[in-house]
Amino acid sequence: MQVLGELLITLGVVLGLFIVWQLWWTNVEADIRQDQAVREFVQEFEPPAATARPSAPAQKAAPPVLEAPAHGGVIGVLYIPRFGEDYARPVLEGSGRDVLDTLGLGHYPSTSMPGAKGNFALAGHRQTHGAVLDNIDKLVPGDRIYLQTKEGFYTYVFRDSRIVLPHEVDVLLPVPQKPGVKPTESLLTLTTCHPRYGNTERFIAYSVLKSWQPASEGAPPEIAARVAAALKGS
């Protein structure tokens, strides 16, 4: 009984350490890598690309359609003010663990790219490896979500969300849940696990492309300070 008790205590300690590593240390490591990736991406631009110009009108021309980079390549940086004024996460090509466990948000290769009609769908962890979508349930209709790319800034407006089972992959269709229907909108779909500390379901958040503006016009006012901070390396 004494030996069994000691084994159970040891097992409890090991499990406790594993939980600390999974829920805390993986986030610490991922936050460092993701912040570095954001700074490196933003610093590729000239300073005017991060300067706010509130009076500049949104670009009325059709937004450019991005080409998908190689697996693991950076598409851009996603800013979600509802998640905090400092929220900025890199978006990479690919949705496998090699992408999601290191640099945050991954693009499903089978879905559209920004600027195209259809569904630009991203996946991200909710509680580990940076917890990039931990607060997805806090989004409110009308919230802005911004994607910064080398071409400029895409502004999406959050529309609605739903909870589905893991096998319901029709949420990734060009028109979600509507096979064979031709898309007329450019969507941004965020997908993550649900509930918060489980993975028996998936939380899906839909946003619609509202506008696009080239990098030469500067960052949208709501995220200008965050973009400028990344440009300075802070």
| Oligomeric state of the chains in view | single chain
Total strands: 8
Helix content: 10-25%
Separation of the first and last Cα atoms: 56 Å
Shape: globular
Report the major sheet: 8 strands, mixed, barrel
Q: Determine the mean pLDDT.
A: 84
CATH class: Mainly Beta
Number of helices: 3
Strand content: 25-35%
Unreliable parts: 13-25, 47-52, 55-59
Secondary-structure element order, N to C: HEEHEEEEEEH
Count up the domains. Answer: 1
How are the strands ordered across the major sheet?
A: 1-2-3-4-7-8-6-5
Structural class estimated from helices and strands: alpha+beta
Task: State the fourth-level CATH superfamily.
Answer: Sortase
State the CATH topology.
Sortase, Chain: A
Cα Rg: 19 Å
CATH architecture call: Beta Barrel
Kindly describe this structure.
The chain is α+β, with helices and mostly antiparallel strands and 234 residues long. It is built from three helices and eight strands. An eight-stranded mixed beta barrel has the order 1-2-3-4-7-8-6-5. Strand 1 (74-79) and strand 2 form a beta hairpin. The N and C termini lie far apart (56 Å). This is Class E sortase.
